[in-house]
Amino acid sequence: MKNPLDVLYLETGDCPICKKVHFFKPRFLCESCESKLENKVIHRCEECSSPLANHHHQRCVPCREDRDDGFDLKGFAAFYYDRDTRVLIHELKFKKKPNLGRCMGKYLAREAFKNGQEKWILKSDYMVPVPLYPADLKKRGYNQSEKLAQGVLDECEARGYSGVRVEARSLVKSRKTLHQRDLNREERQTNVKKAFHLENEGLFYAKNILLIDDVRTTGATLKECSKLFYECGASEVAYLAFAYRGVTARR
């Protein structure tokens, strides 16, 4: 006879944010945390729609600062990197919960639709997850950004949109890099320079590409990846990120 708990306690287990145990419901977040996440009042950059921590500013730090690289990074980040989103990303990356990524990808897509930023999804030909270094991928067992992309695709299909494909094999991380979180803006750019390469370049000629990542900070990784697609003739490259982690403006 089966243990009753085997029936009641689903594989999703407890809510990763509040640790409340789920009974009878095949979901990752409890109703309270899901509602809180989807109903956050988020002040957004008037230029790129990134979440802002400081309500006194109308634009995020990257958009306020003068850019000397002439590179316009287009796209959308759904949530600010706060306690709740930090917990979700940590659980996804380090607690062997690949399906949590698909759930988070659905929230990402819903925020894009809610904020009028679904254009980046619907006009893209390929969604391309930012890749992990092969040794890191082997250790984790999956790429968290690929799981997010699959969740975005799930939400689009649930809304009746089709035609977008996930291409997770062509963009390759060919060099091990330092953790970006401990580096300043200039160090981040140097850290990821020439760390990626693109295979099947002809696949992306005259196509619209949507990069998918878990966290955007300065955008150094996204820019480095974007340049590869533009070099092979892509029409447009944009990004979707689950969270935006604020940076301090340079003095």
Please provide a written account of the structure.
This protein is α/β, with parallel strands linked by helices. The chain has one domain (60-182, 191-244): 3-Layer(aba) Sandwich (Rossmann fold). The protein has helices at residues 4-8, 31-38, 61-64, 83-94, 98-114, 119-122, 134-140, 144-158, 185-192, 220-231; strands at residues 9-14, 21-23, 43-44, 51-52, 74-80, 126-129, 165-166, 171-173, 196-198, 208-216, 236-244. The strands form four sheets. Strands 5-11-10-6-7 form a five-stranded parallel beta sheet. A two-stranded antiparallel sheet has the order 1-2. Strands 3-4 form a two-stranded antiparallel sheet. Helix 4 packs antiparallel against helix 5 and helix 5 crosses helix 8. Residues 1-10 have low confidence and may be disordered.
Question: How would you describe this structure in keywords?
Answer:
251 residues; alpha/beta; Rossmann fold; 5-stranded parallel sheet
Overall strand count: 11
Structural class per helix/strand content? alpha/beta
CATH architectural group: 3-Layer(aba) Sandwich
Q: What is the count of helical runs? A: 10
With strands numbered from the N-terminus, the spatial order across the biggest sheet is 5-11-10-6-7
Based on Cα principal axes, name the global outline: globular
* Strand and helix order: HEEHEEHEHHHEHHEEHEEHE
Which strand-content bin applies to the residues?
15-25%
Number of domains: 1
In CATH, what is the class? Answer: Alpha Beta
Binned, the helix content reads 25-40%
Tell me the major beta sheet: 5 strands, parallel
End-to-end separation in angstroms reads 67 Å
User: Which spans of ≥5 residues are poorly predicted at pLDDT below 50?
Assistant: 1-10
CATH topology: Rossmann fold
Radius of gyration: 18 Å
Average pLDDT over all residues:
86
